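Long-time lurker. I teach an intro course on protein structure, and each term I like to show students one example going from raw sequence to a predicted 3D structure in token notation. This year I'd like something fresh instead of my usual example. Would anyone be willing to generate the tokens for the chain below so I can use it in lecture? Attribution to the forum is fine with me.
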Amino acid sequence: MRLTILHFNDLHGRLEQLPRLATLIQRERAEALTRGRTVLVLDGGDSSDRAVWESDITQGRANFAVLEAMGVQATVVGNGEALQWGRTALQKLVASVHFPVLAANLVDLADPSRLAVPGLQASCVIQADGLKIGIIGVTAVYTNGYDRFGYISTDPLPALQREVAALKTRGAHFILLLSHLGYATSEEKKTWLDPNAFTDDEAATACPEIGAIVGGHSHVLLEAPVMIGDIPIVQVGEYGRYLGRLDLDVNPDTGRVVRHEYCLLPTEDVLPASTISATEEFVREEASHLLDIRLGAASVDLPHFFNQPSPFANRVADALRAICQAELGILFSGFVYQGLKAGPITRRDLYEAIPGSSHVTAAQVSGAQIRRMVERMLASPYRTESFNPKRNSPPLGLPACSTNVQLVYDLPSPFGSPTGVLREGAGGEGESSALNDILIDGHPLDSSRRYRLASTYYTLNPVTDEPEYDYIGLEPGQVIENVRVEEVLWEIVEDWIKTAGSIA
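-- Reply from a regular --
Happy to contribute to a lecture. Here you go:
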């Protein structure tokens, strides 16, 4: 068996790179076929990203539509597909293409014997020249995050062992692992959030029946395959900057690689494939139409500020209070990026004002816990510094509150507020903030009373062991409610605006 694998991974929504990748794929496929080689085109996961509007507004389907047009023959579910939009979106994403979408270890939380969504596959068999190529997909384990959607990523090893046996039963002559587990050296793994994560090299060691591993997730650019015995591991970095070409000569009787060659093909300066460019343009146009939908109107300008209380962010807090049927809403104003002008509000206006993937939560908490949360919000270094500099995120800013709430606090610099009171001139340069009072419907916050609070997962969550996320100080037995878990902040505010019709 003479096999050529063309592969890429971790596009993260970079649609503009796909026509260039397509040019290379067309050229390399044609050249390999003239040499009598079987060709596979594979994607290593994370083709989509909420930070890219075409991905976000279509919940990944824009990217998948172009992948199909390019002739991709299989992909593996990455955390970019599974962690962002939820079960309904993942099911639609899987159904939107004809090529196999794989993830053997992404399973239903209530019934782990079933995969996460209908249509998802653990493995597949591609027949070529009378031979059967088995492909297994596995994805990275996320202990938190997936379960809120009703599925979970389990230990990849048992899933791998099961699918290897199943593919052998189906007569596979060669078994390939399409992985979104990641690869790193032992030293590099020490810096990972989970240094014990199961990675591609461990998969090769534990399952020697695998013939080759095409990887993703860790964004590593491997200029030459990492060899575990005779098993090559390949990965091409990120964002479609390279196409990988792995030529394998395989003994079909043993399924072992007897010879391999590898090269990286940069997309820089490559002319885009015209048909894929046209498809990309069409997909963008269709995605754009989704943003032109009119939601309602603003009767007055609703400006937004990071360094002083924000009228629009306070209205977002009102939306959370209403949607969650809560007594008050509090969130960081930095989850809002810009305000709204008086006049019609389109989905584009709202999407640009509240980008990102913040989820909405609610809970019955004590007044003391609310005070603790606000104090920590005021004391956070991210109040004035970027929370995510790599993505040019603004500071988280001041707390935004529903209009029935008034905060009284001191800051090192004087501001001014229509919904709160800040002590003019209080504090000197470098001094910390101080919360003096919280009023709800004109009454002082009762520390012992329980209130239903609406917020975002960043500040209202069950985390108690990570200072960065430990705001509310959850008590034993308290439950955090994930409100409309498959929607994020802007989508929930969208429904509030639609219901209200006009906001002021």
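Some talking points for your students: Residues 2-289 form a domain with the Purple Acid Phosphatase; chain A, domain 2 fold (CATH 3.60.21.10). The two ends are 68 Å apart (CA to CA).
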